[in-house]
Amino acid sequence: MDKIMDYSKLNDMARRFLSGQEDATVRNYFEKIRLVLETLSPKSPKDERKIKEASTCLKEVMKKSRRMEEEINILKRRINILEEDNEH
Fold this sequence. Notes:
The chain is mainly alpha-helical. It has helices at residues 7-18, 26-39, 45-87.
């Protein structure tokens, strides 16, 4: 893993979060974890495999989280429709 981390991106994200300009969402936490994984410097091939496995798991969790968010939005819309129907 010979990636060079752009610390300015991480610093900007931290600054926005700490100043309250950025809401803490699950997606933000995933992004922060991804940035940390990218900055790790493995000392052995075993460490490199562990980092790659963690990155792969993170990507899968992000996909599942996105699907869950979509389902939540659909359910919220359905609830709104039901509530509107009850009001009439």
